[in-house]
Each structure stands twice: as C-alpha cells, then as structure tokens.
Amino acid sequence: MSDELATTYKRSRMPLYLQVAAVLRRRIEEGYWRPGQKISTLEELEEEFHVARVTVRQAVDLLQKEGLVDRQQGRGTFVTDKKINRRWLHLATSWSSLVSTIRSNVPHFIDPAGAPNRPRLASGEGRPAESYEFLRSLQFQAKTPYAIANVYVAKQIYDRAADRFRKETALSVVSTLDDVSIARARQTLVLDSADPETARLLEIPLNAPIAIAHCVVIDDEDMAVYVGDIVYRGDCVKLDIDLL
C-alpha cells in the first residue's frame, strides 16, 4: 500500500470497504462504467486500492445490494441498466418548502427513553420553555428507514394538540396552530458519521455518513417552541440552493 493511500484511509473513521464502495459508486454515477459494462475484477480492484480481497468483496456486495451492479457467476460484475435516484431527498432551504415537504409524512414513533428533559439551545436560538415533550420517530421510504427525528415541543404547545402530535410530524402541527405566532425559524446542517444506535435504526454500517439538520422555531416571545434534530442517511440527501 502506498504511503499516500494509507494516510488517506487512516484519516477517515469510515470502514475501508465503505471508502472503496464510495469510489466505485461515483464511477458508476459519472459514467466511467456504463450500464451493461463489466467493472474491474476483484483482483484488479484489490491491486488498485491496496486492500484485502475481503474488503473489495464487501464493497461490491454493498453496491449489489443498492442495485447498482449485478454479479454473474463465472462472468464478472456488471453495471445494471436500472437508473437509481439515490439522492432523492432534497433538504428544504426555506420555511414554506420545509413545511410542505413534511406535511404528508407519517412518523413511526419509537421509544424515546434516555433523552434529556430539555434541548440544548445555542446563542440566538431563543429562551427555553418551562418544559418540553420529547418525540422520537423514524421516517421510511419504500420500507427503508431514511431519517430519525428527535424533536422537542414546548409542553404548553404540545398539550393544545396532543392527539395530532402523536399522529403527524411535529413541525407540520406547529405550523398550523393559530395561537402560535412564529417569529423566527432557522435550520443548520452538519455532516457526521453513524454511531451504533443510529446505524441500527437506519440500517446502515457503523460510521457511515449521515447528515443532521438542526431546526429551531421561536415564537414572538422569543421562546423556542420546537427544537428538532433530524438525522438523515447520508446516501439519500441532496442540498439544492437557488443562488439567484
């Protein structure tokens, strides 16, 4: 293994097979290998990436699971002709688009045990409510979990529509309550890697890329009525911003 390549591998907390899979996936998406074309052999990939055969095999197995390649006994591995829109989740960049994209989502609530009683608020994120209701749920696309929603709703707001908060996405409920006057809302996005619990819930490998959208909604009395951290699988997220 070259010193430069070894340093690159060690710099990442991501498992080696995921790093190799990321390179192969990008080649397929950019047309380096076209649909129906045979990709490099395991031996060639092993030599190119300077990793063990089992690492290359795991990478190719992952791409096959994603539907990007098809392994044919005795012939090799071929790029499929089925176009897969992996980056289907467009993160909203405005209040109206955010609310509209989640309005029809159906949360699958899971055990919220172990969460702090109140969210941590940074400077500029309003003052805390007296108490909060914590909600944790999963979001699914074609039976595959793609997001974990960890949400705090001010208790006084939650009590006004408790039945709806247990059936709908919390932010969509907050946005429709007539007696809640929203003064400010902000969302920040950070990139991270999956810890054991996140990997288990989203059915992704440990240390796989994730995106965390932190959203805070503040009322006209400067109280943070909604605080949400939505954890997305990194392989489905796309951020598209109109600059003009």
From TrEMBL:
This is GntR family transcriptional regulator. CDD domains: WHTH_GntR. It comes from the Bacteria. One of its GO terms (biological process) is negative regulation of DNA-templated transcription. Residues 14-82 form the HTH gntR-type domain. SMART domains: HTH_GNTR, UTRA. It holds the Pfam family GntR. GO terms for molecular function: DNA binding; DNA-binding transcription factor activity. InterPro entries: Bact_HTH_transcr_reg, Chorismate_lyase_/UTRA_dom_sf, Tscrpt_reg_HTH_GntR, UTRA, WH-like_DNA-bd_sf, WH_DNA-bd_sf. Keywords: DNA-binding, Transcription, Transcription regulation.
